[in-house]
Structure formats: structure tokens, C-alpha cells
Amino acid sequence: MPRLLNKTALVTGAASGIGAEIARLFAQEGAFVILCDIDDNQGQQITNELGDNAIFFHLNVAEEKEWQTLTKLILEKYHHIDVLINNAGIIGLGCHFGPQNPEECSLENWHHIHAVNLDGVFLGCKYAIKMMKPLKKGSIINVSSRSGLVGIPAACAYASSKAAVRNHTKSVALYCAQKDYQIRCNSLHPAAILTPMWLPILGEDKETAVKNISSQIPLKHMGKPMDVAQAALYLASDDSSYVTGIELTIDGGILAGSSASPTEK
Ligand SMILES: NC(=O)c1ccc[n+]([C@@H]2O[C@H](COP(=O)([O-])OP(=O)(O)OC[C@H]3O[C@@H](n4cnc5c(N)ncnc54)[C@H](O)[C@@H]3O)[C@@H](O)[C@H]2O)c1
């Protein structure tokens, strides 16, 4: 029995990496998937792979007007959504953003990264509640990061935005529970998932860089987008109907330990 039969799921940042894999898995599991991204070409290409079970819309998650237009369109055409994956995000490393450490990160870049990663999630939650209220049920899944739980000196705006996503998830979960909307809200905390986001970080010798990173992970390999998609499937499906306000790590064990811990002689 497909686990998302008769559900409509909206996935942001669905043109690449984790978002694209979530869209594929959700379509396989019987959902009608609304893919959104700022990358229209790539987004449409992934959508075409999914056939009649999917549609693509342009959406810049940081722009409230675009959320308003999309919400109106979805309510008119599909009447509601059951699932929202707030997945779109940027790390700001290895591109035109410049240094991302706390001493050198520019205020402009700090604001831009928060606009996409945090404002985007705030707006997604706000408009998802509108799109879920007609059926009085739903599941919102916010893609945070391990960086929402620990500091990242080389990407401080990213880490700050993801920490805020973790916290906002709990406010949304409790607010929806207080209002008896039957809308659940949970956060995912992936780490070291090999996607295009990592390409500028890995540099020219990708293979050696992946080996080095893998050696620092308890499970000794980087994760795949499907590892995150399976966690999203659990939180989207009715299997998790008593689960709200949690944070689920998908990190090969990275956050299970700490440095300078005692070892056996
Ligand atoms: N890959 C990892 O190791 C990892 C770890 C922790 C968290 N995450 C989070 O997972 C999510 C997906 O990351 P990924 O690794 O698949 O990256 P990715 O770069 O492969 O995909 C990100 C997608 O978001 C889209 N996007 C960027 N800005 C947008 C905007 N303003 N509006 C709409 N779409 C926008 C991009 O076009 C792209 O399709 C991100 O939120 C990221 O922070 C990833």
C-alpha cells in the first residue's frame, strides 16, 4: 500500500539534491507532488520524470508575494495540501558570497542567507497552515541541519538560520496543537549528504575530499539524498500521526558523540 496515497505534497527547492529525491520518493508512494524552485529548467526536468503525478511552479521562498500567488492558485486548483517540505536552502560557501565566518561575513550576505533559509521557512509554515486548514490536517517538515544544533565557524549565517528553523518548528507545532488544527510540524537535521551543495566545498579533488570527510563520520560514509527522503516520508505519512515538534537527525552518527571523549587504552 503506497504510504502517501491521495495526499498532495509541496516540496520547495525540488530541482536538486534532497528536494528532488523527496519529490521522486513521494510520487512513487502515491502522492501528487507540487515541485517548486527558482531553477525553472532543472525543476521542470525533474517534474517531467514524474509524469502525471507532479507539477512544477516557480517559487522564490524568500518572497512573500510569490507564496501568496502560489497559495491562491493551489487553493483554487487543488483546494488544499497535506504535506509541505520546506527544503530550499543555501549555505553561501564557495560562491560569490565571500567569507562566511563571524568576523568577515558581510551584513548583506548574513541577511540574504537568513532570507532564504529562515524567512523562506517562516513564510512556508504561514501559508501551509492556510493550505492545510480546509481539511484540518497536515504535516509540515522543515529541513534544518546538524548546523542548527552546533556552531559552524566557516558558515555562521547558515548555522544561525538553521538553528532558528529548529526553534520555529516547535513554535509552529505547539501553535497548531493549541488551535486544534491537526497540523504537525517537525524538523529534519541532515549532515554530510552528498548533493550539489557540497561541490564547491569539496574542491577539485572530490574523491579525496569525500574520503577525508567520510573518515570523520561514525558510519564512515557520506549520506545519500534518499536517506533524508526516507525520513521525510515517515514524517509526511500517517505512520507519524502522534509525532510533532521533534528534530530527527540523519547524520551517520555525527551528533551522537563529542570530541575529547575518553577512549580505551
Ligand atoms: N547536503 C547536505 O549535507 C545538507 C545537510 C544539512 C542540511 N541540508 C539542507 O537540505 C536542503 C537541501 O539541500 P541540498 O543539499 O539538496 O542542496 P542543493 O543545492 O542540491 O539544492 C537546493 C535547492 O534549493 C533551491 N533554492 C535555492 N534558493 C532558493 C530560493 N530562494 N527559493 C526556492 N528554491 C531555492 C536551489 O535552486 C536548489 O534546487 C537545504 O535546506 C540544506 O540546507 C543539506
Explain what you see:
The protein is of the alpha/beta class and 265 residues long. The chain has a single domain (8-251), classed as NAD(P)-binding Rossmann-like Domain (Rossmann fold). It is built from 8 helices and 7 strands. Helix 1 crosses helix 8, helix 3 packs parallel to helix 4 and helix 4 runs parallel beside helix 5 (156-178). The protein is globular, with a radius of gyration of 18 Å. The model has no long low-confidence stretch (mean pLDDT 97).
Q: How would the blueprint of this fold be written?
A:
Elements: E1 8-12, H1 17-28, E2 32-37, H2 40-49, E3 54-58, H3 64-77, E4 83-86, H4 107-132, E5 138-143, H5 156-178, E6 183-190, H6 199-202, H7 206-215, H8 225-236, E7 247-250
Parallel strand pairs: 1-2, 1-4, 2-3, 4-5, 5-6, 6-7
The structure holds nicotinamide-adenine-dinucleotide.
Residues 12-13, 15-19, 37-39, 59-62, 87-90, 116, 143, 145, 190-193, 195-198 line the site of nicotinamide-adenine-dinucleotide.
> What is the number of helical segments per DSSP (H or I, 4+ residues)?
8
Q: What is the alpha-carbon Rg in Å?
A: 18 Å
β-strand amount: 5-15%
Strand line-up across the major sheet = 3-2-1-4-5-6-7
Helix and strand run: EHEHEHEHEHEHHHE
Point out poorly predicted stretches: none
Q: Which ions and ligands are bound to the chains? A: nicotinamide-adenine-dinucleotide
Query: What class, by secondary structure content?
Result: alpha/beta
> What is the CA-CA span between the terminal residues?
51 Å
Which architecture would the CATH scheme give at its second level?
3-Layer(aba) Sandwich
Count of strand segments: 7
> Under the CATH scheme, which class?
Alpha Beta
Q: How many structural domains does the protein architecture include? A: 1
